[in-house]
């Protein structure tokens, strides 16, 4: 049986309709982790996780460029027992979002507060780190984070290896087949790799809606680079995801 776990997916996106969800069940997935970017999505994610219990799992958090953490916190508190992770949280230092040190510091504070929540709830963090690989990993280590998934990591391999030494995991999206980050897959141990789609973004083809069934594209690429079978990649990445998100073990409909 195909037992992929999509560790980072924007399943609450308006791009997905009812028909899509019927199809999703046939896509060869064991579980989908639904991440949020802003608190406006929280209720929809919780609703989807209830409708597709044991299959769609909620991670609530505020993306670095959103400014609504205060509004988000009570909702995280309300649903804390249902969450498998806090995310998507992190730093985004692309020039579009950051014009100086003040912006970077604001983002750091938002991340710090959410890491504190994750620690209190004993949950892993699902992390975005665009153009901020080094500062993100540095901050996570400084804060004593033990369980982190760095999604679609765009930093240097040396920085990623620093994350590996800290025990962090890295999830690989289908866009890897057209990405400059292919060397990342080469250097990461399979024991630190998870799979993701980041649907509807980061698909195998540019500008084409990505979907969770494309997770196999990630698996096939990792298998090719590592010189192992797709089945082996599936097995190890699923085990990694279950280790990183332990609440999945008790809730997945196996």
From TrEMBL:
For a divalent metal cation 1, which residues are the binding ones? 8, 10, 88, 198
Q: Which GO terms describe its molecular function?
A: hydrolase activity, acting on ester bonds; metal ion binding
Which regions span the lipid bilayer?
A: 20-40
UniProt xrefs under InterPro entries: Metal_Hydrolase, TatD-like
Q: Which residues bind a divalent metal cation 2?
A: 128, 151
Query: Gene3D superfamilies per the record?
Result: Metal-dependent hydrolases
User: What are the entry keywords?
Assistant: Hydrolase, Membrane, Metal-binding, Transmembrane, Transmembrane helix
Q: Which CDD domains match?
A: TatD_DNAse
Q: Which family does it belong to?
A: Belongs to the metallo-dependent hydrolases superfamily. TatD-type hydrolase family.
| PANTHER family attached to this UniProt entry | DEOXYRIBONUCLEASE TATDN3-RELATED (PTHR46317:SF7), HYDROLASE OF PHP SUPERFAMILY-RELATED PROTEIN (PTHR46317)
Instruction: Give a short account of what the protein does.
Output: Exhibits 3'-exonuclease activities and apurinic/apyrimidinic (AP) endonuclease (in vitro). Show preferential AP endonuclease activity on double-stranded DNA substrates and 3'- exonuclease activity on single-stranded DNA.
Protein known as: Uncharacterized protein
Which organism is this entry from? Answer: Periophthalmus magnuspinnatus
């Amino acid at each position: 049986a195909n037992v992929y776990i999509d560790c980072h997916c924007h399943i609450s996106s308006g791009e997905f309709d009812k028909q899509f969800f019927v199809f999703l069940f046939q896509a060869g997935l064991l579980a989908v982790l639904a991440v949020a970017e802003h608190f406006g999505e929280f209720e929809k994610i919780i609703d989807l996780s209830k409708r597709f219990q044991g299959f769609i799992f909620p991670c609530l958090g505020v993306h670095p460029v959103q400014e609504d953490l205060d509004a988000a916190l009570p909702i995280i508190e309300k649903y804390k027992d249902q969450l498998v992770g806090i995310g998507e949280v992190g730093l985004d230092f692309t020039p579009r979002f950051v014009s100086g040190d003040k912006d970077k510091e604001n983002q750091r504070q938002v991340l710090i507060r959410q890491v504190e929540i994750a620690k209190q709830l004993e949950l892993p963090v699902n992390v975005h780190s665009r153009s901020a690989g080094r500062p993100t990993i540095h901050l996570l280590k400084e804060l004593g984070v033990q369980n982190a998934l760095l999604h679609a990591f765009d930093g240097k391999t040396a920085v990623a290896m620093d994350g590996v030494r800290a025990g962090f995991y890295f999830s690989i999206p289908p866009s890897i087949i057209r990405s400059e980050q292919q060397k990342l897959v080469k250097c990461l141990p399979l024991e630190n790799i998870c799979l993701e789609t980041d649907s509807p973004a980061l698909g195998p083809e540019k500008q084409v809606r990505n979907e969770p069934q494309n997770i196999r594209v990630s698996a096939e690429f990792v298998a090719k680079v590592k010189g192992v079978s797709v089945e082996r990649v599936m097995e190890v990445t699923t085990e990694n995801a279950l280790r990183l998100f332990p609440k999945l073990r008790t809730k997945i409909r196996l």
